[in-house]
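Troubleshooting entry. The earlier prediction with coenzyme A gave an output that would not parse, so I re-checked the input for stray whitespace and re-submitted. Clean input:
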Amino acid sequence: MLIGADELDRPIASAMVGYDGHRGWLYYLAVDTQWRGRGYGRALVERAETLLIERGCPKLMLMVRQGQPSLERYYHQLGFSDSETVTLGKRLIRDE
Ligand SMILES: CC(C)(COP(=O)(O)OP(=O)(O)OC[C@H]1O[C@@H](n2cnc3c(N)ncnc32)[C@H](O)[C@@H]1OP(=O)(O)O)[C@@H](O)C(=O)NCCC(=O)NCCS
């Protein structure tokens, strides 16, 4: 998902949302530095929620890297809460 375009036709904000049939997942939410604090992040999260609800998805998940308390606060004020789970990962293709 992309939002808007600046005077050079570059996207202002973007996010990736997926639905695996069980949960929805939000990845790569990002707003261009000069456009932050104007509601574009919130708008993308709300758009993701609408798309998922339309598909019958009951819950939206996202992952925040540890050690980013301000980002956690950001998502808390958008209605997210800690899911008290441990995320495990296994790399299948080497990160070059
Ligand atoms: C996190 C990010 C997407 C927020 O986008 P944004 O467009 O600046 O956020 P918004 O303008 O929608 O902010 C919505 C609300 O969150 C608040 N907020 C913004 N950043 C915050 C922060 N770091 N901590 C707490 N609250 C924050 C705003 O004040 C606003 O509150 P309001 O609606 O009551 O006025 C943006 O800062 C960013 O791109 N960061 C770098 C990439 C990143 O870390 N992405 C997250 C990956 S998990």
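This one parsed fine. Helices lie at 40-54, 69-77.
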